[in-house]
Design brief:
single chain, 268 residues, alpha/beta, Rossmann fold, eight-stranded mixed beta sheet, globular, binds thiamine diphosphate, binds iron/sulfur cluster
């Protein structure tokens, strides 16, 4: 179970144990899952948290590695985490690079860096934390915001069609692409471990579906973190179940994706 020794994990891996994230923010769940995955891999002798270089851009998600992780961290400029990560990898090829940042940072302002990083395929692990808005600056819409979402600048609902980040990554011919929602922590931990291992050889990309109760939830009738998690649970189905059942409700699929064709077949 994920939470059993989470306090000792936080002591071991965090510089500051208490975070400034809003109560119920999905990033707490992601952080705990990441620490659990890191610890499991360390026990297997396959990962060294304290020697890893964690790189992030700007945003609430970008705060996860820095200031919190007790490791080498580089907190960069908005949208440019992958450009910095590329530079660090080229300068220090033996280093383990992990990028953790938001969907605004990696897929909106940093979208160009994302496609070229995936195309270039330098070994690194990339975690894009998607809460569907710009959380840090007040919940404005970005490239992933679903249509009809109420935000401070779209009081009648967002009208633009959003990016599906998985399609974007597969379209850029990323060599490893996966998606895991925070509401399924056991799957998420496995997904994080797989990404961390594959990221030693190539660019490994994982979209983590998170929640921002403060800005997305409050404005869109999801009035508590629990309601947001329940809604997330309803919206997503594992790839295994989607294949077994043909995904009759056309839910969004999570798991590891091999190709655009496979992804299109799963989601129709
Ligand atoms: C060049 C630049 N443009 C805009 C900003 C303002 N800004 C800071 S964080 C942010 C959005 C972050 O959103 P996301 O990456 O999705 O992370 P979240 O806060 O939702 O975790 C923006 C627009 C900035 N710091 N720098
Ligand atoms: S604003 Fe949203 S994303 Fe940022 S800490 Fe609060 S709940 Fe989390």
């Amino acid at each position: 179970m994920v939470m059993t020794n989470i306090y000792s994990l936080r002591k071991k891996y965090l510089r500051i144990e208490k975070t400034t994230f809003c109560a119920g923010c999905g990033y707490g769940i992601f952080t705990n899952c990441f620490l659990k995955a890191a610890e499991e891999l360390e026990k297997e002798g396959k990962f060294d948290f304290h020697k890893t270089i964690f790189i992030s851009g700007i945003g609430c998600a970008a705060w996860i590695p820095n200031p919190y992780f007790l490791a080498e961290t580089l907190h960069t400029t908005h949208g440019r985490a992958l450009a910095f990560a590329t530079g660090v990898k080229l300068a220090k090829p033996a280093s383990k690079i992990v990028v953790i940042s938001g969907d605004g940072d990696l897929a909106t302002i940093g979208g160009n860096h994302l496609i070229h990083t995936l195309r270039r395929n330098l070994p690194m692990s990339i975690f894009c934390l998607n809460n569907y808005v710009y959380g840090m600056t007040g919940g404005q819409p970005g490239a992933t915001t679903p249509q009809k979402t109420i935000t401070p600048v779209t009081p009648e609902g967002s009208i633009e069609k959003p990016f599906d980040i998985i399609k974007l990554a597969l379209g850029a011919e990323a060599k490893f692409v996966s998606r895991y929602p925070i509401v399924f922590p056991k799957n998420l931990i496995k997904g994080i471990k797989k990404n961390l291992l594959i990221g030693n050889e190539k660019s490994a990309f994982t979209e983590v579906i998170s929640i921002c109760p403060t800005h997305f939830g409050r404005k869109n009738n999801l009035t508590s973190p629990a309601k947001m998690l329940e809604a997330q649970k309803e919206q997503y189905i594992s790839k295994k179940k989607a294949l077994e059942t043909q995904n009759p409700e056309q839910k969004k699929v999570f798991g590891d994706f091999e190709s655009l064709d496979e992804y299109f077949n799963l989601t129709k």
